[in-house]
Batch of 3 targets.
Target 1
Amino acid sequence: MIFKILRFPHPLLRKKAKAVKKVTPEIIRLIDNMIETMHAAPGVGLAAPQVGESIRLFVADIGEGPIVVINPKFIKKSGKQTLLEGCLCLPGIEAPVERAAHVKLKGLNRQGKPFELTAAGLLATVLQHETDHLDGLVFIDRVADPSLIKYVDRKKEKREEII
């Protein structure tokens, strides 16, 4: 099932999400539907608040298969990198965001088992971006220079590629 993705400034996107107490069949179904929604969008990450569920859960896929993180907590961040970010709740908006280049986080997997994940580059940025959603933040909150926030017309861009 593909969910409708909430658009900024929906109030739920500004709320701190609650921890998941137990991985239930409903949570597993939510995860599967979020992965389907993320791929259909298309996007590289999707947090539960973006689909109307104020719980600490996100999915990500940078082309290496889906990652599920429940109750994420960063245990290490190092280095700096600036990547151009966008968001499914702010369609067409892009801006450079500086974040940690290397991260290590802990959380629960889709079976509710504890695990740790170490990431660098794009995946490190995606993990930080999605965790921000669980804290009521969107990427434009982290843009150092607001004049760098741009609107990109995807429809126009695609037409030009065809020509």
Note: The chain has three helices and eight strands.
Target 2
Amino acid sequence: MKKGKLKVEFFAISEKGVREKNEDAYLAEKIGKYYVFAVADGMGGHAYGEIASKIAIMELKETIRRFDDEPRNLLKKAFEKANTEILAYSKIVGARMGTTLVACLLDE
């Protein structure tokens, strides 16, 4: 068996399901030294769920790019920033909005 780096391949896909629109946003990419996998699902019944899920994923990506920290702290910062930005945006548009967010960081 050869010694060397493990080749990692990954893929992501989202399916609309039975709803009128897909409110999912996802992330599957290598950012810095981490492989990052995440899914955010806009909360049905709330306005702008698709925007909330995109904000959550965007804040996760940007936090990992900006900070050099251990995974636990990066995720905590990202979730807090996502929450802050979603609340701010909901005040701007005058509507309740929300999303779930599940994320995993794997160190190479």
Note: The chain has a mean pLDDT of 89.
Target 3
Amino acid sequence: MLFVDCNDCYTTEPEYADITLKLTINDENSAVYYEVYYGKIEDNNFWFSDTAYSEEVAWSAPVNEYYSVKAFYYSKGREIIAVDGTNLRTKYDQSSCSSDCYLIRGDVLNAKFKY
């Protein structure tokens, strides 16, 4: 059973939702370059790239789609690539709140550098 915060509910199904990308910012990586793809990285459907200077960045994307990310780190002179993917989707909920609503699921990509 999932806890539902009714403040996060939408009365109509949203077309877009925010995706949050979690990254590692440290002494070796004060900025992290990342690439975002529609679908799986292997499908090579590049969407956009950017450089992050904070541990979280977010953008809006169409729901009910799969997204993936590559984040590029450096450690001891070597390049390390962290990857993650998520299915950004809506979930219809009829029982958790006072009225029927749509919830957003899969809205976090975790591309943190794990030592």
Note: The two ends are 33 Å apart (CA to CA).
